[in-house]
Amino acid sequence: MPESYQIAAEVTPSARQLKWQQTEFYAFCHFGMNTFTDVEWGTGDTPPEVFQPTDFDADQWAKTIKSAGMRGLILTCKHHDGFCLWPSAYTEYSVKNSPFRDGHGDVVKEVADACKAHGLKFGIYLSPWDRHEPTYGQGEPYNTYYKNQLRELLTNYGELFCIWLDGACGEGKNGKVQKYDWQGYYAVMRALQPNAAICISGPDVRWIGNEAGVCRESEWSVVPSWLAINEYTAEKSQKTDDKRFAKKHNAMVLDLGSRKAIRGETELIWYPAEVDVSIRPGWFYHASQDNKVKSVEKLFNIYLRSVGANASLLLNVPPDKTGRIHAEDAMVLDSFGRFLKREFPTELLENGRASATSESDTEHEAGNVLKADDSFWQAASDDEHPELILDFGEETAFDSVILQENIATGQQIEAFDLYIQKHERWKRVGKYTVIGYKRICRFKKTMRARKIRLVIRSHRGKATLLRVCAYKREEIG
Q1: Nearest-CA neighbor of 80 among 152, 12, 176?
Q2: Which of 416, 463, 470 is nearest to 448 (CA)?
Q3: DSSP string covering 396-421, please?
Q4: What is the average pLDDT across 144-165?
């Protein structure tokens, strides 16, 4: 029987998971009744008339989000208060009974259309917990209600890249507890939006385990299948009768996918991580937080520790009461987009050369890592410590190296070192663990060298690299 790590080496992402991972960096827009009541969780009894943005501009949202380098937007179509941002046929608690567009508005449509116009992917959030809907807590009647609303969102607003939902299962003073039909929800999603990734409380993407923008040092995309239990079975997270689950239900344990962590596991799944964090302390807009918007430097640190550490980054940007992204947030986001372009301007290895200690065959040669296509390098299976040498052609200044495994065939690299050649000798400049979809190695000071040497210290039998890039940040002034 093969070892667990050997099983893990053969686990690969689905097409939808691969497309989701390639999105890398996208926005969450928390907007709804809470925006106007200045709370994070609404109670569901605020009159629809309170929802009254004075200058709603979805186009401004899309432009602002794209300026930051983000590639998609997820909208809170319904939060826990139950207020719907589209004119749902299944409830009166929606924009159709608000002053917005004189009762003829549809926030979801306007945002979806703006995303399409500006080349952004669009996704939806539909809270399972609903503090307004009378059928909540009645079992099947509410599940039917939720599926009906899902069908509205999944059929009327074009192709979605993501369906985002949490496992919120609130129990209020009235004692309502709802048993969610997760598998039934997923069936509707797969039937109507087969290419959309079901995120967080779903089978495609897992929550990183915190809201601080922090990845693990080694973020594995291949993990034990039981990790999915705490994401899609809400009742498990509220009970302790399953001892195995209770023991392992720690969302931010530091090791999920190493050989030690998966030893003895026979069911492993591709379950990549998403980092979700807000640009402000809260998830909805609060005027009192206008001076607490994260700085460009803070956002870049989060970016490096998420996108640069084998996860995606979902950055929450909450529009204000006018229906626009506030000027403070917009300014930071525009600055951040410019900052990213300066950090990673021109790819320096584009005209370089690559050689390796081994290649599995002629189709997977070392030079593939310098090509901007789907070709990749794969080391020979008997090469225990494969090495790759990247030659700029002349001494070159750089301060970042970005590596990507060919995750379409799995995640295998467990540890690697980077060296530069100085005076005909190799000097180690970095020691790292996993790569996965992307690993950004950013150095504190500028390196100068003609050659970079990558030594893979440990892998799971099929070491691959899709791409290696090097950059030098542009100096200002």
Answers
A1: 176
A2: 470
A3: EEEEEEEEE--GGG---EEEEEEEEE
A4: 98
- DSSP three-state, residue 150: helix
Identity (one letter) of the amino acid at 54? T
Q: Which residues contact 372 (CB under 8 A, 6 or more apart)?
A: 467
* φ and ψ of 85, to 5 deg: -85, 10
pLDDT one-digit tens code per residue, 164-203: 998 777 765 566 889 999 999 999 999 999 999 999 989 9
C-alpha pair distances (Å), 109 with each of 64, 116, 122, 146, 467: 18, 11, 11, 19, 38
Domains delineated in the chain: 4-343 (3.20.20.80), 353-471 (2.60.120.260)
Q: Is the pTM of this model over 0.70?
A: yes
The structure tokens listed for 462 are 């099929």
Contact present, 127 and 163 (Cβ < 8 Å): no
pLDDT at residue 171, rounded to an integer: 65
pLDDT above 90 for 243: no
Element (H, E) at 188: helix 182-192
Rounded CA separation 441/42 (Å): 42
